[in-house]
Amino acid sequence: LVDAGRPEVVSVRPNEFRNVKPKILVKDGDTVQLGQPLFHDRNRPEVRFPSPAAGEVVEVRYGRRRVCQQIFIKVAASETAVEHKSWSPGDARKLNRAQLVEAMLDSGLWTSLRQRPFSVIADPEAVPEGIFIAASDNDPLPFDADLALDGREEDFQLGIDLLGKLTEGKVHLCHLRGGGKSRALSGATGCEKHSFSGPYPAGSIEAQIHYVLPYKKGRTVWYLDCQDVAALGEFFRTGAYPVTRVVAVGGEAAVERKHYRTRRGVSADFLQDGKGHLKRKRVVSGSVLGGGKKVTSTGGLGHYDNKFSILPEGDQPEFVGWMLPGFDKVSRFRAYASAPTATKPRSLNTNLGGGVRAHVATGIYEDVCALDILPAHLMKSVLAVDFEEMEALGLHDCAECGLCTFVCPSKIEFGDIIQSGIEEFLKEEEG
Ligand code: SF4
């Protein structure tokens, strides 16, 4: 774990939040304090998104149809923060639910809570059946929760105790078998601990929730990252919006593969020396299999992410590639000469290895899906905009793990289709 120092510029991406219509509150040249709201949700103005730094807003970048893509903030040499009320840990534990919700909304920390189904920001008026803490990761380039929580034991425990007031059920702490060894995780009390094992997505919180409290009509559960639990405790103890974040950088094209102690909104370029090492490399905020989070090397870390995955671009055509035996190719069907050594890790870039073709019913998606879902049928129900079928086929449970996209021999973007189904469903619910 390396201390990365202070970045010169940080950024936030207002368009990364599902079902949020951002109302931008700043413009180029404005000066902001750390923790000052940069935008809020038009439909729920009480849900605010705070600045991860104090300084000057150097650019509010808009894309097509004036949709705000990113807000860049130049970090001031001497930062001032919005001051909130602080409590001793004992007094914080005496707060009631309404006081907690109000303080979290006011500070912007509320945005760290998401709800299942559909992973939207939690509804402050709902009472969840349980709150899940994500402290595990076993995607191809994993993040180490034990490392991230080292030294934050008291804040983490305070965070758990406060979360317990927000639910009528239990707080669930989820980690992988063999993990959860840090003092913060092993010593945590006031929560039910769950240990998971198995290949990816066993470490994904969405899949874990499916196994503990699967979707049923009317059931709401909330979840958040373990670092946000510690941030919650820190906020109530100090009265300042916490911006410290441990971020993993991994992937074959990364210059240095390490965990960095840095802050929210940091760019991959800053963590990798800022010397243009990331040109012609694919920077993904979050999991390589999560989908839809490609960022530029100077783009900021996603609000819910704790890693950058950096891959070689696969934009070089392979001369008569279709004729080659494929000793180094990955194939779920074991269709290449690589089949005898298929279990060995091999180099992967962003090349799809083929063009989009008609869908063929092979059963491969059902093979890899870890949940009780039939991905091919689900995809068809989304394309037919059949809401009843989508629900019956498991849209609400889908962990959006990306495996069905990864193995698809027809190169169909299942992830995008599932996302569009979720968005349609949310629109339908809004009426
Ligand atoms: S349907 Fe696809 S994205 Fe959803 S859980 Fe199954 S494999 Fe993952």
Can you lay out the helices and strands and say which pair or pack?
Layout: E1 2-3, E2 9-12, E3 22-24, E4 31-32, E5 37-41, E6 48-50, E7 55-62, E8 68-75, H1 89-92, H2 97-107, E9 114-116, E10 120-121, E11 130-134, H3 145-148, H4 153-163, E12 170-176, H5 183-186, E13 192-196, H6 205-212, E14 221-225, H7 226-238, E15 244-250, E16 258-263, H8 268-271, E17 281-285, E18 294-295, E19 307-312, H9 364-368, H10 375-383, H11 387-392, H12 403-407, H13 414-430
The structure holds iron/sulfur cluster (SF4).
Structural notes for this entry:
The chain has helices at 89-92, 97-107, 145-148, 153-163, 183-186, 205-212, 226-238, 268-271, 364-368, 375-383, 387-392, 403-407, 414-430, and strands spanning 2-3, 9-12, 22-24, 31-32, 37-41, 48-50, 55-62, 68-75, 114-116, 120-121, 130-134, 170-176, 192-196, 221-225, 244-250, 258-263, 281-285, 294-295, 307-312. It has three domains: 2-82 and 241-312, no CATH class; 89-238, Rossmann fold; 352-430, no CATH class. The chain has 13 helices and 19 strands. It is 23% helix and 20% strand. The mean pLDDT is 91. The protein is globular. It has a six-stranded mixed beta sheet with strand order 1-16-15-19-17-18, with no helix packed on it. The structure holds iron/sulfur cluster (SF4). Iron/sulfur cluster (SF4) binds at residues 368-369, 371, 373, 375, 378, 398-404, 414, 418. Residues 368-369, 371, 373, 375, 378, 398-404, 414, 418 line the site of iron/sulfur cluster (SF4).
